[in-house]
Amino acid sequence: MQGLKSGDYCVTVLIQDEEMIVSNLGNCKAFLCTREGVAKVLTSDHKAETIENQGGYVAKTRKLELEEDMEFLVLTFNGLWDVVSNQEAADTMLNVLAQEKTPKTFNTVSTAS
């Protein structure tokens, strides 16, 4: 494999019945955020040198039981993780979701004369 370079990555999640199967290949990540707001990483990153040292095969798969405290999943590639921590990403998503759940209110202006 001399002289060959690649940069592909893939992260997938299959949710079926009461289970979640998470798999990743390359430098990408999946994490879930609990209802308490804690980010829990589900995958491990694969840097180029790690992939080469393991002969080019490093796909990882993990099976989890779904739990009541699982709020949401985030699937992304390394570009985000170069500038944002897991917890920062979870906090940002929680803030967006909180704004969406907040009832919209409108200011009314009385024009009574």
Automatic annotation (TrEMBL):
PPM-type phosphatase domain sequence ranges: 1-113
Pfam families according to UniProt: PP2C
GO molecular function, one term: protein serine/threonine phosphatase activity
PROSITE patterns for the chain: PPM_2 (PS51746)
Origin superkingdom: Eukaryota
InterPro entries registered for this protein in UniProt: PP2C (IPR015655), PPM-type-like_dom_sf (IPR036457), PPM-type_phosphatase-like_dom (IPR001932)
Protein name, as recorded: PPM-type phosphatase domain-containing protein
Protein species of origin: Microthlaspi erraticum
